[in-house]
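$ ./design --mode recover --in tokens.txt
reading tokens...
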């Protein structure tokens, strides 16, 4: 698998002009140079996008996408979700919860995302919370549920620790803060 990946990335060297290709000026092939080239291109793209000119190009590109009818709605939705999830304010996942899902007696990690609002709240009787149940091992996909507040258990775990727990499929359990505090 690694050999296939390195071989595929080494083919990116063929995109260079022949006089720039390492084989033409060294006389032999060095495996892994394509990986290095790929890393340099990704790094250079990041540096370029982070500076003023790059930021203006990104804003121009977003403006262009905002003018395309179907792309506009998809892009703006995905951007809004990603901005919320990856914001530094950390309001996307407020607390870590334990909920019974997908059936009674089965428990899983969930994140409190807020409370139902709008017309949805008018149709729910009682106190409900909005939760996000991530899937394993890719927590960017999951399920959005509205559950009675009485049916969720709030955990004393950081969001980062809970995400590691989910991504590791339960192999890396979060630290028990009560046991850690008792030992100190």
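writing sequence...
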């Amino acid at each position: 698998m690694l050999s296939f990946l390195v071989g595929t990335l080494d083919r990116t060297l063929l995109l260079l002009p022949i006089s720039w290709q390492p084989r033409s000026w060294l006389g032999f092939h060095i495996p892994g140079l394509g990986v290095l080239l790929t890393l340099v291109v990704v790094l250079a793209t990041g540096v370029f996008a982070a500076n003023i000119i790059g930021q203006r190009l990104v804003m121009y590109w977003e403006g262009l996408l905002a003018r395309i009818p179907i792309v506009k709605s998809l892009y703006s939705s995905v951007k809004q979700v990603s901005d919320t999830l990856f914001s530094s304010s950390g309001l996307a996942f407020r607390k870590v919860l334990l909920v019974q899902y997908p059936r009674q007696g089965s428990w899983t990690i969930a994140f409190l995302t807020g409370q139902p609002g709008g017309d949805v709240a008018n149709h729910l009787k009682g106190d409900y919370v909005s939760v996000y149940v991530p899937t394993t091992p890719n927590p960017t996909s999951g399920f959005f549920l509205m559950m009675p507040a009485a049916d969720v258990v709030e955990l004393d775990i950081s969001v980062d620790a809970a995400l590691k727990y989910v991504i590791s499929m339960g192999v890396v359990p979060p630290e028990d803060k009560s046991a850690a505090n008792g030992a100190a």
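exit 0
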